[in-house]
């Protein structure tokens, strides 16, 4: 049943409950004592219960009033959060990263350490189209992506800044044929099985690895369900014939007995291009601070000896 609670009435109830006197609540709310009494009466009528008992000491909560009070406080908190969520500059900066262990997540942790006063909401969306739609709707302020997918350029109202080229590393178990290498030329990976069950056709990262395969004649298998990074690490550790690619700045933790090896890939080094995407008309003041921070703290891109697909924007 919708009883149509008015927030001013609920706020008056909470003020009266905290003050213990209608007169003091009226002074706090800058209304008359009669207005407080009328609002409480309206609320009691809508709820169908008595909320206060008048005593010589003032106004005391009834059992029903005590039961309603914490919910009334939560109603006011929710309303405040709702208003703050659409007040640019007062709400948190909402940023999408692909996974919580990714290089982009590390960039946001660094930003938070440098600017602890800026509130952040960090979330993970699925693909670039989902992220761009969220940027355009205002659901998020920015997203870290690989800029574009071939044949699907960014909309004109979406700006981008290439912030990090993350080198790929080969991850192997201790019995893999390349486990003892200090580095491995990318051409030497031809013929080795590289297992990446998280690749989803149509995504920007699938486009990246499709081009990597075509350029260097690699074999990347995306077969089987994706049970997450822990299951992937378990399988790589136990299967000498399998390896996988990981970003050089991806945070990984595995049991000591796994004996996994992270091996740099060279000649050239494939790098995954992370860019920050945002709406050109987004006025959130912290967005400009984030862009300036990334521009000042991340290394350059298109470094000699590295490789990216042709469709990656060079900006």
Query: Can you say what the CATH homologous superfamily of the largest domain is?
Result: Periplasmic binding protein-like II
Major sheet attributes: 11 strands, mixed
Shape: elongated
- Give me the number of helical elements: 9
CATH topology annotation of the largest domain: D-Maltodextrin-Binding Protein, domain 2
Helix/strand/pairing category: alpha/beta
Rg result: 28 Å
Note the run of SSEs as H and E.
HHHEEHEHEHEEEEHEHEEEHE
Bin the helical content.
25-40%
CATH uppermost class of the largest domain:
Alpha Beta
Low-confidence stretches: none
Q: What is the total tally of β strands? A: 13
Q: From the coordinates shown, what is the CATH architecture of the largest domain?
A: 3-Layer(aba) Sandwich
Average pLDDT figure = 89
Distance from N terminus to C terminus (CA atoms, Å) equals 56 Å
β content, as a range? 15-25%
């Amino acid at each position: 049943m919708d009883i149509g609670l008015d927030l001013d009435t609920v706020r008056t109830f909470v003020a009266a409950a905290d003050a213990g006197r209608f007169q003091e609540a009226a002074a706090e709310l800058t209304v008359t004592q009669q207005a407080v009494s009328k609002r409480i009466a309206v609320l009691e009528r809508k709820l169908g219960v008595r909320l206060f008992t008048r005593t010589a000491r003032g106004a005391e909560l009834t059992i029903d009033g005590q039961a309603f009070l914490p919910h009334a406080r939560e109603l006011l908190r929710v309303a405040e959060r709702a208003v703050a969520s659409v007040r640019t500059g007062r709400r948190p900066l909402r940023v999408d990263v692909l996974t919580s262990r990714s290089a982009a997540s590390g960039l946001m942790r660094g930003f938070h350490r440098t600017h602890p006063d800026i509130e952040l909401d960090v979330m993970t969306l699925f693909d670039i189209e989902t992220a761009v739609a969220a940027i355009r709707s205002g659901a998020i302020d920015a997203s870290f992506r690989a800029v574009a997918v071939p044949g699907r350029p960014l909309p004109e109202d979406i700006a981008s800044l290439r912030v990090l080229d993350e080198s790929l590393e080969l991850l192997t178990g201790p019995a893999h044929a390349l486990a003892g290498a200090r580095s491995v030329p990318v051409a030497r990976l031809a013929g080795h099985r590289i297992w990446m069950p998280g690749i989803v056709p149509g995504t920007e990262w699938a486009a990246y690895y499709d081009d990597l395969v075509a350029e260097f004649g690699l074999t990347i298998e995306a077969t089987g369900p994706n049970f997450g990074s822990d299951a992937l690490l378990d399988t790589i550790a136990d299967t000498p014939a399998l390896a996988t690619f990981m970003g050089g700045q991806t945070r990984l933790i595995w049991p000591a007995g796994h004996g996994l090896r992270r091996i740099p890939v060279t000649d050239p080094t494939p790098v995954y291009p992370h860019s920050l995407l945002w709406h050109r008309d987004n006025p959130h003041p912290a967005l400009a601070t984030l862009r300036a921070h990334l521009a000042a703290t991340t290394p350059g891109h298109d470094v000699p000896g590295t490789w990216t697909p042709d469709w990656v924007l060079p900006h």
